[in-house]
Amino acid sequence: MTHVSYSEIKIWHECPFKHKLQYKDKLNGFLGNLHTAFGTAIHSVCEHGLLDENLDREAHFLEQFEKEIGSLNEKEVDIDEKLRSQMMGQYAPIVSSFKDELENYFGDFEVVETEEALYEDIEGHDTKFKGFIDLVVKTPDGRYHILDWKTCSWGWNARKKADKIINYQLTLYKFFWAKKHNIPLEMVETHFGLLKRTAKKNNTEIFRVTSGPKKVKNALTFLEKAVINITRNVSIKNRLSCKNCAFYKTEHCP
Fold first, then answer.
1. Does residue 43 fall inside a structural domain?
2. Residue 107's domain is classified under what CATH number?
3. In a domain, 181, yes or no
């Protein structure tokens, strides 16, 4: 195992056997859908729209969305035409609001990087942590802010916003980004940006996620536990995670 990502260790946490099927046996249980196509296209607008003020955001979204749908067609994924039509009327409030919301939230800020790659050593293991950070900005107080965009329908409830496993993504990004750039951890803060497809207003919501020393320690423990067990080929089935699994009741996981 040369590297792991947050997505991989999250899947291992959900079900070690699912991890085996997907990462060891290289089986594709989930091929994507319209929701992932929409999310990928919106992410592309957020990335390129911050770097190019003259970008036609709506045209860029439409181009990327059609590209993603073409990829789904090649994989023979069924397309829900009703949902596709709905999405065509839902992207505009997001692509027109995300930049303004960043300015409202951070005030004066400098874009440090978009889609920054991480490929950093995991201490004590012959494995690297791999990831891509959607956005890093710097504010006048000298602090750096890591933000991960999440597309969703109406938003997240308080329980999901506080979910420690979800939050560990940002905590790990913070730790390895700070390590990469030799920045003190206390000078880095973390945030999620929700891009809401079906919301009637406030289609972009940004909120801070705490990532102090205790959470950093817990996130690294979570990462190490996953790396150790993946290396040992531990692949026990977690029956509590079967309901929404693409492999459930297939020949691979009867």
1. no
2. 3.90.320.10
3. yes
Q: What is the band of 29 on the pLDDT scale with cuts at 50, 70, 90?
A: confident
Residues sharing a CB contact under 8 Å with residue 111, sequence separation 6 or more, in sequence order:
50, 51, 135, 136, 137
73 found inside a domain: no
pLDDT at 1 over 80: no
Residue 30 has pLDDT above 90, yes or no: no
Report the number of distinct structural domains present in the chain.
1
- Residues 196-238: tens digit of each pLDDT: 999 999 999 999 999 999 999 999 999 999 999 999 998 999 9
Q: Is residue 66 in some structural domain?
A: no
Q: Which pLDDT does position 125 carry in this prediction?
A: 96
DSSP 66-130: HHHHHHHHHTT----HHHHHHHHTTSHHHHHHHHHHHHHHHSS-EEEEEEEEEEEEPTTSS-EEE
Helix (H, G, I), strand (E, B) or coil at 210: coil
Q: What gap in Å lies between CA 150 and CA 39, rounded to an integer?
A: 8
Residues 15 and 29: their CA atoms lie apart, in Å, by 14
**Are 52 and 211 spatial neighbours (Cβ–Cβ below 8 Å)?**
no
Domain that holds residue 214: 3-30+90-236
